[in-house]
Amino acid sequence: MRWTVSFVRVFSPSRAVNEDADDLDHLRKDSAFKIACGRLPDTGNDLCSQPTMSRWENAPTLREIMKLGGVLLDLYCAGIDTLTS
């Protein structure tokens, strides 16, 4: 899945897709676009849509996930302390 999303983003300027990827909703079934991304034109699964592309581009990095996990652990421990006091 991740490679396909990357291919869609790389090849989208060739199909005159604007930066916010709104046109991907219309191009996800496009035969030529599917071939360029390594899918069969008629029987291959459709490509990703604009919301999928947005989630992928805005996904947190591993470092951000680790920081969030630390904060959540601190909040949990602080909550346990208040409950036991």
UniProtKB/TrEMBL annotation:
Annotated Pfam families: DDE_Tnp_1_4
Domain of life according to the entry: Bacteria
Transposase DDE domain mapped to chain residues: 18-78
Alphabetized UniProt keyword annotations: Plasmid
Alphabetized InterPro entries for the sequence: Tnp_DDE_dom (IPR025668)
Protein name listed in UniProt: Transposase DDE domain-containing protein
